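Researcher: I'd like a structural prediction for the single chain below. Treat it as a standalone chain; there are no partners to consider.
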Amino acid sequence: MATEVPHATPKSAQTRQRILDAAAEVLSRKGYAGTRLADVAAVAGVQAPAIYYYFGSRDALVEEVMWVGAHLVRLHVEEVLAAVPEGTGHMDRLMVAVDAHLRFELQLSDYATASIRNAGHVPEQLRVRPAAEEALYSRLWRELFVAAQQAGEVRADLDTSMFRLLLLGAMNWVVEWWNPRTRSLDELVATAQAMVRQGAGAR
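Model: Treating it as a single chain, here is the predicted structure.
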């Protein structure tokens, strides 16, 4: 999914965005080691040397994709949660967050897929900015679990920090094995939601 470019955006900014969108697509498919600027340029419809006008290096481009991926998934889940009707239960809010995360990761954004799939493969210096964004996202989930536990909707004896990390790790790993030809996205989401309800829900 490309990030939106306003109609009033100067042509150079549109070209930069097109390159960034192309890099997200290539990185999500080929990974860090397999991503070449020539491939990005071909998808973006520009000459490879033109990329250096907008990004100082291949790694600078990759870092930007990784940061955007982490940023967009956080914004998406926050926006979806903000639209949940007032008075919705805390466990139901967790279900909404699980649904929003998986659908954005698998269906809506090459950026999210690229960021998640390559997090453990890029050089450490490229992880600094994305990691800061991921920390904000992790805090969002921590607040969801703490609120649910305080409301009695999550087991009082549950280590919510450990469960949260296990859940996010499992959902992120889905990009490596999910095949829409064998299991629908709806089935996947429902299974993840059941895992949270049955594993964390108060009895």
